[in-house]
Design goal:
Length: 325
């Protein structure tokens, strides 16, 4: 018997059991993928309804992961809401005008840092210091009464992203102008969805969809699928896309506007002018994260299609659809 034939025979004896062992090793993963079931849960928060659709091996695991994510959402709302008088955001606003930095939670610091960066890139088209104008226009919409020019000017004097100074390394913020009010409505839902998806991932959920009142965040695709089927409005029709590991956010004034002297003023306010938008657009953004998609959709609403199409090119891995209303 030659050396080569001895080697081949030994190799056959070794490889046979090895292949069998590998087959059994992969079997649990194959069975796991086949046994994943679809579950869906909803939870009201942030003035809308959040929905989680996920795939898990059991209802107990799915429900537990969803409850943790919704619990974190509730906690975020207590920190980030401008509707709750004692939220961390409002407490921070009441301490504006001081020269010292104020320590805040990691979550509030993160979202304020992201917001400031987007404000600088858009030269103020996105601005979370818009709170005074937001409150003024909310009252106007409720009363169906156009705000006076003097009231708009007085509110606008307290609005400027340059007054917001989040630190670079520590969880602290300085608000330079007295009586500032912050409003995170243009980014909070996307940020919350990002944080919720992190909770699901920690619980071993790798295939999930989070719908934050129309803003959607996706992780891995459903079992045996190439992606989640999402329909994007494109003109008068909608087109289905297969997507995963991305976020989709839409901004527009289709249903919310105030008619005054022949013009329609959107609930979306231009922080640079102090007035609601008069151009009617629906913008849909696909981006890597919920906070970026949400923030870009808000910013592009203010910039409009002509300026927005060129400006948004600086953001990699993002795509935008503009639809005139």
């Amino acid at each position: 018997m030659t050396t080569d034939s001895m080697f081949n025979r030994k190799a056959q004896k070794t490889i046979g059991p090895l292949l069998l062992l590998l087959s059994f090793s992969f079997l649990p993963f194959l069975l796991q993928g086949q046994s994943l079931k679809r579950f869906s849960y909803t939870h009201p928060q942030m003035g809308t309804r959040f929905r989680i659709v996920l795939y898990a091996e059991s209802e107990n695991k799915a429900q537990h992961a969803s409850e943790l994510a919704f619990s974190h959402l509730d906690s975020l709302n207590q920190r980030l809401s401008d509707y709750i008088p004692e939220s961390e955001l409002n407490r921070l606003g009441r301490q504006s005008g001081t020269k010292k930095k104020l320590v805040v939670s990691k979550e509030l610091w993160q979202i304020l840092r992201q917001s400031k960066q987007l404000s600088k890139k858009s030269k103020g088209a996105f601005d979370v210091t818009i709170g005074p104008l937001s409150k003024l226009w909310r009252k106007a919409f409720k009363a169906r009464e156009f705000p006076s020019a003097a009231a708009v000017l007085a509110a606008k004097k307290r609005v400027n992203y340059r007054y917001l100074k989040p630190s670079r390394s520590e969880h602290s913020v300085r608000l330079k102008k007295a009586n500032m009010q912050l409003d995170l409505g243009g980014i909070a839902k996307g940020y919350a969805a990002d944080e919720m998806m992190k909770i699901l991932a920690q619980e071993g959920i790798t295939s999930a969809l989070i719908d934050a009142g129309g803003d959607i965040l996706l992780s891995g695709p459903p079992p045996e699928k190439d992606g989640w089927t999402i329909r994007i409005q494109d003109g008068e029709t909608s087109k289905p896309l297969l997507l995963h590991h991305c976020a989709i956010a839409t901004s527009g004034d289709t249903y919310q506007f105030l008619s005054w002297e022949g013009k329609k003023y959107s609930h979306i306010i231009d922080p640079r002018t102090g007035y609601g938008l008069t151009h009617r657009l629906q913008i849909t953004v696909i981006a890597p994260t919920g906070s970026l998609a949400d923030g870009l959709a808000s910013t592009l609403s203010v910039l409009g299609q002509k300026k927005g199409q060129g400006w948004v090119k600086r953001f990699k891995d993002c795509s935008v659809t503009f639809v005139a209303q």
